């Protein structure tokens, strides 16, 4: 029998094109009057668009326009960006970071992520921690119960991000031992914690889908991981739930899928209320659904955004059946709505201490408030918590409740209360809270 000899492939061949054609990045503040132009030219590779958009989103940039083209072996992007006040990006350190992060020496790879000790989820790490994933059926007071269990088991929450959508809750928490401030790797302690958290997530129901926990998540950006968790949980199928918030017509995304016969693409058109990280949420979802973006055009028209993507599945197929189209529309609509938070925004800043999150969430629960989204971070000795809340019926929080909150917690921490505007892209910050204190936004600011 003749022996089959396969051709030899140099393992470095895959990176050869990148080495001879390294990415070119330019930050241009002179070509456009009202925004900074960031141009990226690079050899094309799977996931590169999400990689670039993720970096820009983590810097809290508002993308007002973008043009993407990646047909063939080359990837070309132009982004028009501003800060949250609508100003150009002029800080020299920020510009230097952009050029390094998107350039040949700063490409985001698994190897670079693994250099962070104790890494589990996200591109950011705060000290030595254990990362926990939770997903389950949402209900008023659930976050308070979770944080109380962790406090009772002597776990300190150093950072967390919580999303709710269609009566499902997903969160990633970073915890450590409350005495040693080290990651907890004792399997017995972790097993006890997992069992108690499962019981809370399950509540009074026997349905296994009611909730689950996990301690090993791999190397994934925290916002992307939350999208993946809710997508895997099929939260996009939860339309029509009676207890869900009724969004006004202006908030409902208008999504269409058509076939582009000339080039053999499926064209996805999205028009919805504009907000920060909108492009990231859409590109993230398309990528995790195994679709490749070949061309895209993004623009903002006042309070609304128009985004158009020309895609194919990774296997080269377009969206040909009505079932496929309907699924993509539902998934994109869910991705857009997961980060939408109506109602009241509470920003709390205090000296960090063990059990602080448990105490704050207990007070919110006792005042009849349900948390729809939350971001928790610890920077040095300061704990910075942001909660989006509404009353347990889904209505706007009344003035009496706000005053009660101020009296109860105002003497131990700084509190800033803001109603979410219905037209602005993001609530305008005031006083000490000039940053969106979500763990996914910390980036290098506090880790350098």
UniProtKB/TrEMBL annotation:
The keyword Chaperone does not apply. SUPFAM superfamilies: ACT-like. One of its GO terms (molecular function) is amino acid binding. InterPro entries: ACR1-12, ACT-like_dom_sf, ACT_dom. Keywords: Repeat. Coiled coil: none annotated. Residues 37-116, 131-215, 345-422 form the ACT domain. Pfam families: ACT (PF01842). The keyword Isomerase does not apply. Binds amino acids. This is ACT domain-containing protein ACR. It comes from Ziziphus jujuba (Chinese jujube). The lineage of its organism: Eukaryota, Viridiplantae, Streptophyta, Embryophyta, Tracheophyta.
């Amino acid at each position: 029998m003749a022996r089959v000899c396969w051709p030899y492939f140099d393992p470095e061949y895959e990176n050869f094109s990148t080495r001879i054609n390294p990415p070119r990045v330019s930050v241009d503040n002179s070509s456009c009057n009202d925004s900074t132009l960031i141009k990226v030219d690079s050899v094309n590779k799977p996931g590169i668009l999400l990689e670039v958009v993720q970096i820009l989103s983590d810097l809290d940039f508002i993308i007002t326009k973008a043009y993407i083209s990646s047909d063939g072996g080359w990837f070309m992007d132009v982004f028009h960006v501003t800060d949250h006040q609508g100003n150009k990006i002029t800080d020299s350190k920020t510009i230097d970071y952009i050029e390094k992060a998107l350039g040949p020496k700063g490409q985001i790879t698994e190897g670079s992520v693994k250099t962070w000790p104790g890494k589990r989820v996200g591109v950011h790490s705060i000290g030595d921690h254990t990362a926990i994933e939770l997903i389950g059926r949402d209900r008023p007071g659930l976050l308070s119960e979770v944080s109380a269990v962790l406090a009772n088991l002597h776990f300190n929450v150093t950072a967390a991000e919580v999303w709710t959508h269609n009566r499902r809750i997903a969160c990633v928490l970073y915890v450590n031992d409350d005495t040693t401030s080290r990651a907890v790797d004792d399997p017995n302690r972790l097993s006890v914690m997992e069992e108690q958290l499962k019981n809370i997530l399950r509540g009074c129901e026997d349905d296994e889908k009611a909730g689950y926990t996990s301690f090993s998540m791999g190397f994934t950006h925290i916002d992307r991981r939350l999208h993946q968790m809710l997508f895997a949980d099929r939260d996009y199928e939860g339309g029509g739930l009676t207890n869900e918030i009724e969004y006004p017509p202006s908030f409902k995304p208008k999504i269409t899928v058509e076939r582009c016969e000339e080039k053999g693409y499926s064209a996805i058109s999205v028009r919805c209320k504009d907000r920060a990280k909108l492009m990231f949420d859409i590109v993230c979802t398309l990528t995790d659904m195994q679709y490749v973006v070949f061309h895209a055009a993004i623009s903002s028209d006042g309070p609304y955004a128009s985004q158009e993507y020309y895609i194919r599945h990774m296997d080269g197929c377009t969206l040909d059946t009505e079932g496929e189209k309907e699924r993509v529309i539902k998934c994109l609509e869910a991705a857009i709505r997961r980060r939408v938070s109506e109602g009241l925004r509470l920003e709390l800043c205090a000296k960090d201490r063990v059990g602080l999150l448990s105490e704050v969430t207990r007070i919110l629960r006792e005042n009849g408030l349900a948390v729809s989204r939350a971001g928790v971070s610890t920077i040095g000795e300061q704990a910075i918590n942001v909660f989006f809340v509404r009353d347990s019926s889904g209505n706007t929080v009344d003035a009496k409740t706000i005053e009660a909150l101020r009296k109860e917690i105002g003497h131990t921490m700084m509190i800033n209360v803001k109603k979410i505007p219905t037209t602005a892209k993001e609530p305008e910050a005031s006083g000490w809270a000039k940053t969106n204190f979500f763990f996914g936004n910390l980036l290098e600011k506090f880790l350098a």
